[in-house]
């Protein structure tokens, strides 16, 4: 079994550190203000991902069951195709945490994707979509995948 709450606390700590490193300024106009707003959006997305993790109690680590395609733009959002392959002998559901990152590896957004009803020895496709508009070249990584 995987300690889901522990993972959530670690994820939240990363967001707090990211927000703290975003910069401080007395001015409300400028890069520090923009960085602060971006950190707030990321914090909100991460909190939503934590909520999904909390709902997925007794999940088993299943990162090896998940593959991501290449991140692309879909209108004003970034998307990435997700393929989940259930190697178990019964139908399972998956929770996949996907991080969208910029070319420097900085996390821009975190998405929790539920892929329900993946049949035994079968695959199912889904799409992870960013919560907000992301600029520049965006890549995606699997932060965590849980099977339930």
Characteristic key phrases:
148 residues, alpha+beta, four-stranded antiparallel β-sheet, 41% strand, globular, disordered N terminus
- In helices, the fraction of residues equals 25-40%
- Report strand order across the widest sheet: 1-8-5-6
Strand content: 35-45%
Measured between the Cα atoms of the first and last residue, the distance is 10 Å
Q: Structural class, from helix and strand content? A: alpha+beta
- Average pLDDT confidence is 77
Helix-strand topology string? HHEEEEEEEE
Radius of gyration: 16 Å
Strand elements, count: 8
Large-scale geometry: globular
Largest sheet: 4 strands, antiparallel
Q: pLDDT under 50 segments (min length 5)?
A: 1-28
Give a quick rundown of the structure:
This protein is α+β, with helices and mostly antiparallel strands and 148 residues long. Helices cover 29% and strands 41% of the residues.
Describe this structure in words.
The chain has 148 residues and is of the alpha+beta class. Helix content is 29%, strand content 41%. The strands form two sheets. Strands 1-8-5-6 form a four-stranded antiparallel beta sheet, with helices on one face. Strands 2, 3, 4 and 7 form a four-stranded antiparallel beta sheet that branches. β3 (72-74) and β4 (77-86) form a beta hairpin. Mean pLDDT is 77; it is low at 1-28.
């Amino acid at each position: 079994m995987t300690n889901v709450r522990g993972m959530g606390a670690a994820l939240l700590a990363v967001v707090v550190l990211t927000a703290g490193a975003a910069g401080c300024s007395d001015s409300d106009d400028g890069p520090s203000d923009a960085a602060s707003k971006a950190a707030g959006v990321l914090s909100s997305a991460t909190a939503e991902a934590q909520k999904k993790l909390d709902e997925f109690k007794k999940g088993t680590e299943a990162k090896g069951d998940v593959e991501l395609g290449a991140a692309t733009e879909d209108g004003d959002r970034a998307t990435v195709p997700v393929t989940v392959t259930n190697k178990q002998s019964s139908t399972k559901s998956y929770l996949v945490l996907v991080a969208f990152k910029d070319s420097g590896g900085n996390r821009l957004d975190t998405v929790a994707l539920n892929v329900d009803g993946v049949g035994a020895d079968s695959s199912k496709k889904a799409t992870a979509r960013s919560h907000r508009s992301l600029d520049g070249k965006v890549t995606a990584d699997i932060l965590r995948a849980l099977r339930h």
